[in-house]
Write a structure and sequence with these properties.
The protein is of the alpha/beta class. 38% of the residues lie in helices and 15% in strands. The chain has a 6-stranded parallel β-sheet, with helices on one face. A 3-stranded parallel β-sheet has the order 3-2-4, with helices on both faces. It has a two-stranded antiparallel ribbon with strand order 9-10. Helix 1 (8-26) packs parallel to helix 10 (272-292), helix 2 packs across helix 10 (272-292) and helix 6 (140-151) packs across helix 10 (272-292). The termini are far apart. The relative contact order is 0.17. The model has no long low-confidence stretch (mean pLDDT 95).
Length: 297
């Protein structure tokens, strides 16, 4: 079988071009979409990821800024900064890069970000609206997955979707998206997690299977159904002595073998990751339009 690679990099570029055109046509030189990102950790991967977001912002015409704070920053100091940014007209989107240091309550920080500027979609108000099907900012990775599936013409309606992982960032919001009674969803959803017994009993019945667990190459060929769709959210660094870096990036899926059996599959890297950033840009522009009173007609 020759599966179709779901090329997130390609589709993300298409979306970026659409966003760039929208900004050029709807915004003036005086009003540009603005995104501010706050980094409160010393994780090199987080810094690389934020730099990638900043580069993407520049590509489409979004003004962006990264505020780097020391790991010792207190929760109250971070909250004060977010409150200031909530009132700053230059920024229409605010994101706080996760993970945060252990002494900072992530849920509390998500609550402080204004729902109107919550382009990550983590504020409880946006999460609640997502659950009941109201218009809201959707977390970027789940939104990117649905957008990627849709742009490849993959039908979700009536399909059995299995998600491995129950995080607030991917698993839970993705399940809430997929069960909505809408044209791009209306699926039957099963969530598997660390407490699930005999996970392969569920994965083998999946028409669409999403892995978001952070376990390198966990999903094997014998765990998937013939002609199914596999979406790999995992990004894992494993040792590779043949590489100049000494490591390589792999997903949660044994891509080489699983790809022999399925109809569609996302590569890692180049699958879900670029789509996540594209959805962040889209959310930022939508926030800017709403806050600035710009109609998309």
């Amino acid at each position: 079988m020759n599966p179709v690679n779901l090329d997130g990099k390609l589709i993300a570029q298409v979306i970026k071009n659409e966003i760039k055109s929208l900004i050029e046509n709807k915004f003036s030189d005086e009003v540009k979409p603005g995104l501010v990102a706050i980094l409160v950790n010393d994780n090199p991967a987080s810094r690389i990821y934020l730099n990638s977001k900043t580069k993407s912002c520049a590509e489409v015409g979004i003004y962006s800024k990264i505020i780097e704070l020391p790991v010792s920053t207190s929760e109250s100091e971070l909250i004060d900064l977010i409150k200031q940014l909530n009132e700053n007209d230059k920024f229409h989107g605010i994101l706080v890069q996760q993970p945060l240091p252990p002494h900072i309550n992530t849920n509390r920080i998500n609550e402080i970000i204004s729902p109107e500027k919550d382009v990550d979609g983590f504020n409880p108000i946006n999460m609640g609206k997502l659950l009941i099907g109201d218009e809201c900012f959707v977390p970027c990775t789940p939104a990117g997955i649905l957008e990627l599936i849709s742009r490849y013409g993959i039908a979700v309606d009536g399909k059995h979707c299995v998600i491995i992982g129950r995080s607030n960032i991917v698993g839970k919001p993705l399940a809430a998206l997929l069960i909505q009674k809408s044209k791009r969803a209306n699926a039957t959803v099963t969530i598997c997690h660390s407490g699930t017994k005999n996970v392969e009993n569920f994965t083998r019945s999946a028409d669409i299977l999403v892995t978001a667990m952070g376990f390198p190459m966990f999903l094997k060929e014998n765990m998937v159904k013939e002609n199914s769709v596999v979406i790999d959210v995992g990004i894992n660094r494993i040792e590779d002595r043949t590489s100049a870096k000494g490591y390589k990036i792999v997903g949660d899926v044994d891509f080489e073998n699983v790809s022999k059996k399925v109809s569609y599959i996302t590569p890692v890297p180049g699958g879900v990751g670029p789509m996540t950033i594209a959805m962040l840009l889209k959310n930022t522009v939508e926030a800017a339009m709403k806050i600035s009173g710009i109609k998309n007609v």
